[in-house]
Amino acid sequence: MAQIKNLLLLLLGICCSVFLLSQCTTAKDSSFEYKQAPSEGWIYSSSIHFPILVTEGQKTYDVSFFLRYNTFCVYDKLELKAEWWFHEKKVYSDTISFDLLKAREKEKTIGLLSEIELPAKKVPHLPHSGMYTLALSPLKKDSLLYGIETVGLLYSCETQRNEQ
């Protein structure tokens, strides 16, 4: 059962990566990645970090977020703080809201895991080329978040897709 679940998750990741790469002219301006959430609970002061290579500053990027959660996740809504950092300086901040109550009505379930995807958000012109870090952390300050398995990120340069 666990092997089938892992195989399905791997196939989903490969399909999304192939789709994304077919939409961009260069692979270095796009990425799809999942990061593991803390298994003992995700605390407010803890962040999950994604490295993001931006080869062309001043371009708009499309960013989609994915959340995989298990049956221990009892939240109706989950909000994360997203902060974009460049050389230890915050350049952009946003709030990401996952409506888990609505998602449960039409969720994709893989074994004991469920997945929700937020449509792409526009990240305004990142000012410089180089390596950024996207830090995601819970906005709920008073408790641990349980049942969150992984957080995913899919990003691509909007102008590359439009050039085709």
Please provide the ordered H/E string of secondary-structure elements: HEEEEEHEEEEH
CATH class category: Mainly Beta
Derived structural class: alpha+beta
Indicate the radius of gyration in whole angstroms: 16 Å
Mean pLDDT: 76
Distance between the termini: 41 Å
Q: Give the neighbour order of strands across the main sheet.
A: 1-9-3-7-6
Describe the structure.
The strands form two sheets. A five-stranded antiparallel beta sheet has the order 1-9-3-7-6. The chain is of the alpha+beta class and 164 residues long. Mean pLDDT is 76; it is low at 5-27 and 160-164. Helices cover 21% and strands 47% of the residues. It is globular.
Could you name the key traits of this structure?
21% helix, 4-stranded antiparallel sheet, Jelly Rolls, 164 residues, 5-stranded antiparallel sheet, globular, single chain, disordered C terminus
Question: TL;DR of this structure?
Answer:
The protein has 164 residues and is α+β, with helices and mostly antiparallel strands. 21% of the residues lie in helices and 47% in strands.
Give the topology, please.
Elements: H1 2-23, E1 30-36, E2 48-54, E3 61-69, E4 77-86, E5 89-99, H2 100-105, E6 108-110, E7 113-123, E8 130-138, E9 148-157, H3 158-163
Antiparallel strand pairs: 1-9, 2-8, 3-7, 3-9, 4-5, 4-8, 6-7
